[in-house]
Write a structure and sequence with these properties.
Number of domains: 1
Strand content: 25-35%
Mean pLDDT: 80
Largest sheet: 6 strands, antiparallel
Helix content: 25-40%
Radius of gyration: 18 Å
Low-confidence stretches: 1-9, 158-162
Number of helices: 3
Order of helices and strands: HEEEEHEEEEH
Distance between the termini: 21 Å
């Protein structure tokens, strides 16, 4: 009975986390059929607005998802990754009719994605936007760097939110 109550409490915490998600970033090597996704949520505990909770979900074929949790209070690399994202050059419109060059399509690389709220400055927010790329882009370098930096922040066993 105690285990069932603990699992129910973890599910409730996970549902609350999902409501507070601010952004996500992921990496998915095409030929491995695996993915790593980090969801980032504001940590509203104790009225804090400058702290975040992070959930890593690793998906592998034929295996249950592996879920790990951390936060910016216990992992400086988490804050560093979130802060560094503000400096990542994002894609911009690239009309094909105006640019005379070959289009390169990579079918077997690594899919990178980031979904974040965007705005026009001065507090004016637009709808969340998703940016996708493959290897060799500033977005790919940031995701790889963020995941590498966070490597030591995830506990060895899945846990509920702290």
């Amino acid at each position: 009975m105690l285990v069932a109550l603990m699992l129910q409490a973890a599910a409730i915490d996970a549902a609350a986390f999902d409501r507070d998600v601010w952004g996500r970033f992921s990496r998915a090597p095409a030929l491995r059929h695996t993915s790593e996704e980090v969801a980032v949520a504001r940590d509203g505990r104790e009225g804090a607005t400058s702290h975040f909770r992070l959930r890593l979900t690793v998906r592998r074929p034929g295996r249950p998802d592996a879920v790990r949790w951390t936060d910016t209070r216990s992992c400086a690399a988490a804050r560093d990754a979130i802060t560094a994202f503000a400096a990542v050059p994002l894609p911009h419109p690239d009309p094909p009719a105006m640019i005379d060059r070959d289009l390169v399509i990579t079918a077997d690389g690594i899919g990178y994605a980031v979904t974040v709220p965007v705005g026009y400055g001065g507090g004016s927010l637009a709808e969340p936007a998703t940016f996708r790329s493959n290897v060799g882009t500033p977005l790919a370098r940031w995701v790889d760097g963020a995941l590498a930096g966070l490597r030591g922040c995830w506990p060895d066993a899945p846990t509920a939110l702290r």
